[in-house]
Here is the input.
Amino acid sequence: MRIFALKTLLVLITITGTAIAAQELRATTEDGRKVILSPDGKWQLNSNQLAPSVQSDFSSPYQPAVKKFSLNFNTTEWTLPPKRDGGENNRRLFQHKNLPIVGMVISDEMPANTAVMKDVIIGNARQAGADILVLLDEMHHIGGKDVGSIRFSANMKGLEFLFSTYYYADQDGNIQVTCYAAQAQFSKYQSDCEKFLSGLVIK
Here is the structure.
């Protein structure tokens, strides 16, 4: 059973009967989860009214320009900084609040196909002056679509990073969802990166 964070606020408590000490208390947390507080001080999830959906961890969707794409991300873990003046309109960075990992979404309406997207991703990294080594190249099935997944190391002037990216393209546009970290740290935070990437939604 998952322990609620101390900051979780109980916003609604319904007390049934007058003998509070002998009654169960039912409450709703700020993120919509229903709990039962027993007289002995223990709590449990109300199995009749669990969290509103399995997406409760993903409390905010990010919507790029192409409306068929979105990214669900957990705002308790990630922050979406404001766009910088003069920054690229099709690119947004996400910063993890506690870990040394960075997320990025690049999306625009240029038609393409998924195979071409992989070449573009690798080509852009090489054009930036990085030495690239592809470590993983596979396909996933998301929203009924075949989505590419690539992981590669990038060495630029002695700085080594590891990038993990989901990518997809069709006649409506394209999207890349990336999470990266220093290569020496990536394995430690790989599951956090994969969770971020799995927020990709394709309609």
Helices lie at 114-127, 183-197. The CA atoms of residues 99 and 189 lie 8 Å apart.
